[in-house]
Amino acid sequence: MSPSSKKLKILFVASEAAPFAKVGGLGQIMFSLPKALREIGHDARVMIPKYGSIDIARNDLHLELEGLQLENEEKDPHGMLVCNVLRYEDENKNITAYFLENMEYYEKRANVYGYNDDPIRWVLLSKGVLEFIRNSEWKPDVIVSCDWQAGFLPNLIHAQYKDDPTLRGITTVFSIHNLRYQGMFDPQFVNEMDFDAGQKDIPPIPDETIMKLNGMRRGIMYADVINTVSSTYAKEILTKEFGEFLEDLLNERKARLFGILNGIDTESLNPEKDPDLAVKYSAKSIDSRQSNKVVLQKQFGIKEDKDVFVAGIVSRMDDQKGFDLLIQMLNQFMDNVNLQLVVLGEGKPEYRIFFEKVKEQYPDRVGVHFSFDSRLPRLIFGGADIVLVPSKFEPCGLVQLEAMRYGAIPVVRKVGGLADSVQDFNAETGEGTGFVFEKYDPFSLTMAMVRAHEIFKQKSTWAKIIKNAMNQDFSWKRSAADYVKLFEMAVRFHTEKP
């Protein structure tokens, strides 16, 4: 893939970005993707709110712009909507990040999400970004708005700012990381009066009708191009099963809808150099990987045995991730197969209770850890034989990519990014990187795990699968090149607008 002739200026707008504020996968993407784009010559930057938890001195933030007035004095007599913009740049200029500072909506809040007025906070972010660009020397060619929290931005450019000479030339891309999350409501239960068709202008802050706006719908409606995080998920969301009540709108705009698989940071996720692994290894030295299994067993308090079949789960515990399937099949599987299981995750109490009971039932074979520890995922990927990802739907999924990097073989459902990244193992050809099942039911998951266990007994075949998995290229460099093509296409679409 040849690099672009024109170097683009790209601004990502999101609710979180590592290392400053990271709650989920989006935060990591907002660190890795701009960095990868800069490495191939593009000027990619990111902008998020300046939350109270982000320390100015520790992060070496500097004032970039002071006193941005987001509403006129009549609408904002007490100056609650006056914002500053802070800037971070690392020594090597690999990262440039901006932070929208506002006392009322960000500085007084330690957390990223979870406030009753969240939609107002996100409209503030979109307006703040646009006012910053209007007053800044640096002007992006492309703005990438991420998920419903930044979905108001393409709408504002299209409506309130449509005649602005600075903003009307900027291309907008709306990036969907999970279609299910659309605002402060469940789209399944929205009544007719509260339904947001996306046609009315966004009201001034802090008008309470903002609470009923669907940021996801508006991002899809008004962006020049829509992308999501795998090509299969881009096709799935056109259907009623995966469309989350937006499938009709997405079908209207499907000529502008694309999917690009996320990457992973192959520098920090590297079993040859990972400081948290007891024994380093590569695809050429997988025999030494077994020593990490014993360390993993010790960490989770289960019987130390380097020859036993170990399954790992690294996941948010909710229905999307297939935990209802695990509840239905796990006890019977444990009774019939010599399996150890290590579980790392947070989420619904009923799933936590279930795994606590399973641990009581099989104390030497099941280990659980319910709070986040940055070391533990890599210990699991470096020591487990398989990693279970039986998702109901999965826009991209990072766990299976990270697991394969470390030689833990994914057992996945053929859905979304899992379908795009894991190739079902074929015993005849020796090709494949995991074990894939199609139907969302406990029997299909059981059969995939049985297959994995049977092939695990064939040591040379299992070694072949590990090498296949570890030799896959899921680097951000690959994804970044695809994003450049997408941005160039979006610029053409924007230029060709009537």
From TrEMBL:
CDD domains tied to this protein: GT5_Glycogen_synthase_DULL1-like
Residues annotated as signal peptide: none
Entry similarity comment: Belongs to the glycosyltransferase 1 family. Bacterial/plant glycogen synthase subfamily.
Residues covered by the Starch synthase catalytic domain: 9-252
Keywords (A to Z) from UniProt: Glycogen biosynthesis, Glycosyltransferase, Transferase
Protein name listed in UniProt: Glycogen synthase
GO terms assigned for molecular function: alpha-1,4-glucan glucosyltransferase (ADP-glucose donor) activity; alpha-1,4-glucan glucosyltransferase (UDP-glucose donor) activity
Keyword presence, Glycosyltransferase: yes
Protein purpose: Synthesizes alpha-1,4-glucan chains using ADP-glucose.
Biochemical pathway: Glycan biosynthesis; glycogen biosynthesis
EC number: 2.4.1.21
SUPFAM superfamilies reported in the protein's UniProt record: UDP-Glycosyltransferase/glycogen phosphorylase (SSF53756)
Superkingdom per UniProt: Bacteria
Enzymatic class: transferase
Native species: Candidatus Yanofskybacteria bacterium GW2011_GWA2_44_9
Family annotation (Gene3D superfamilies): Glycogen Phosphorylase B
Annotated binding of ADP-alpha-D-glucose, by residue: 22
Reactions that this protein is recorded to catalyse: [(1->4)-alpha-D-glucosyl](n) + ADP-alpha-D-glucose = [(1->4)-alpha-D-glucosyl](n+1) + ADP + H(+)
Domain Glycosyl transferase family residue range list: 301-449
Entry's Gene Ontology BP terms: glycogen biosynthetic process
Stored InterPro entries: Glyco_trans_1, GS/SS, Starch_synth_cat_dom
